[in-house]
Amino acid sequence: MLSFREIATLMLVKDAPDQVDPDRAELDALLERRLVLLERMASGQSRLYLTSDGDSVLAAIARGH
Model-level pTM? Predict the structure, then answer.
């Protein structure tokens, strides 16, 4: 089960991934559960992506389950 902060972070990754601090503690849980993916780009920057599982979690929350 995800905490409210983890759900909020998941929503933020979906809507504004560039606004997420990569040092957020909640990211560790989301990465471990494979709900988000952290990609290291050639420029040295990191980019967060929502995985299909992460998208499914948000869709289930939106449906009220």
Answer: 0.86
